[in-house]
Amino acid sequence: MQLVDDRPVYSATDLVAFLACEHLTDLELAALAGLVERPQRVDPELDRVVKRGEQHERRFLAERRAEGLTIEEIRVPEGVDRGTGYRAAAAATVAAMRAGAEVIYQAAFFDGRWLGFADFLRRVEAPSDLGPWSYEAWDTKLARHTKGSAVLQLALYSAQLARLQGREPEFMHVALGGSAREVDHLRVADYAAYVRAIRAQFEAFTGGRAPVVYPPPSRPDPVEHCEICRWSVVCEARRRVEDDLSLVAGISAHQRTALRARDIPTRTALGRLPLPMWPPLEGTTTTSLARVREQARIQVDGDAVRPRVLSERLAPGRLRDGSLEPDRGLLSLPAPSRGDLFFDIEGDPFALDDGIDYLFGVLEPGQVGADGAPVFHAWWSIEADDVTLDAERRAFEALIDFFMTRLAADPALHIYHYAPYEPTAMRRLMGRYGTRELEVDQLLRGGVFVDLFRAVRQGVRASVEGYSIKRLEPLYG
Predict the structure, then answer these.
(1) What is the pLDDT of residues 364-390, one digit of tens each?
(2) Given the DSSP bridges, would you call strands 103-110 and 115-124 parallel, antiparallel or unpaired?
(3) Under 8 Å between Cβ of 378 and 392
(4) Per 3-state DSSP, what percentage of the chain is helix, strand, and coil (rounded to 5)?
(5) How far apart are the first and last CA of the chain?
(6) Gap between the Cα atoms of 356 and 4, Å rounded
(7) Residue range 20-35: mean pLDDT, rounded
(8) Closest CA to 377 of 342, 421, 407, 429
């Protein structure tokens, strides 16, 4: 969202943001009106993902050049104002289309209100106003599956193409990440009407409202888009000032909406809420409401003793006959054994096309080192100072061999991990390399892996806003 020739100009990014969070659109409108400066987000992890995305795009471009295709690259001229530059790039795109270029790289669309840069336009032999050919839009994405945001972006580009060539493209294409080099081919007609409706909603939202103010009246509810949003720090600060319900660990968006409708807008109000509610809270069971009420209560109580974290053991569940519910909460934890191990993996999901697990770490409390601390074992996916797939395979094999050796010495041992990533990774690596299948099967079927996250969420309540292992550190030192 930007001003061009003193008029607001929007992009596919703005439309995607609007679908994810209307509050974000309000913030961007406030920045556009000069009421607040856009924050700068420093996120090295996000920067790495962006760089890998750029590498994926350049590789796709190089592959097209290797095919011998003629490629016309569009650039926004420097040294001119925005409007002049965008119009020049859009005109160059139209000229390349009329000339019949086989591939147009960084094609620009600008109609005075909407601006877009398609990664690639590829010529197809379907007649249009251009001649016996036309163009379809391609986009490169690191993801292994096409996301809705990519579809929305390509559909907007396809609408611009229809305007310029007098023919709606039949397909739009997403070149996905990963070594398989998969491409999703999507029919434009399947999405065009939906995108027109969303675009109309966005234009009504941005153009037909009361004067823009800051802070906006909309609510900064957390959504998935917050992970990459530059405004996330601003929104989090506002939620804390307002003691917002979203600070309650495990509360759902539906529960927040229903509670606010009943004039319970804050975490403190929820924590002091008498139960049962009458009439019952819409769409929420009595048990679920009690759970989030108690979570809010302990978080509010915990504010008074920071940085200490309060905790409570949850009463074990019982079956209809009154007996304890097995394999739930703290009852899911096996008896300790001298050979027990604690296991964690560090990985990068976008490295080397298909991602890589570069460090397998195991703490062995039953073995004590020269410093008197439990021995820590590390297997790195590194050879010749570089992370490689061959090194990952060898590290995985060495890890499984270590597990099996320890299991033979102590058949009662368990391998503890936090959240399900570790056993999932064992299955994936076993399949990727076709090795240690029997051993991994024995570990999984034998119940050797134990998820501590599951035990904690079902057996402990703590004055934290989320149950990541990082937030729980004050409890276990």
Answers:
(1) 999 999 999 999 999 999 999 999 999
(2) antiparallel
(3) no
(4) 45, 20, 35
(5) 46
(6) 43
(7) 94
(8) 342
